[in-house]
Structure formats: structure tokens, C-alpha cells
Write a structure and sequence with these properties.
The chain is mostly beta strands. The protein is built from no helices and four strands.
Length: about 70
């Protein structure tokens, strides 16, 4: 039995909005995506998080915000 079949991460997009930034690689606009993430163990929810990820619309790279 595989460990991957026991744990499952499900992410659902809540909303997308402009981040007001430009991509450092290609200069394209950046979108901020909000995700609703659920970690499941044998189909039972263990944790719930809301995540924000940044993506370039032209080169489709995932960007990490500078702190």
C-alpha cells in the first residue's frame, strides 16, 4: 500500500486578482490566486488552510513574494 493513497491534498481556487506587480523574468503582469486547501487522511479532513500564490500571466511561472 502506498503512502500517497492514504494522504490527499485538495486545492480549490477561491478567487484571482491582479497583484499590481510585474514578472522579473519577462515583464508580464502578475496574478494573485487564493486557494482553499484541505489535507485528507483516508477521506477524513485533517487540516484546512487558505493559501495565496502568485503567477505570471505570460510565462506561467510561479513567483515567490519578497519579504
Amino acid at each position: 500500500m502506498s503512502l500517497l493513497s492514504v494522504f490527499d491534498l485538495q486545492e480549490k481556487v477561491i478567487k484571482r486578482e491582479g497583484a499590481g506587480a510585474v514578472c522579473p523574468y519577462c515583464g508580464g503582469p502578475v496574478l494573485a490566486w487564493d486557494f482553499d486547501a484541505h489535507l485528507l487522511f483516508c477521506f477524513l479532513p485533517i487540516s484546512h488552510k487558505t493559501k495565496r500564490k502568485f503567477y505570471c500571466t505570460i510565462c506561467s511561472r510561479r513567483l515567490i513574494p519578497a519579504n
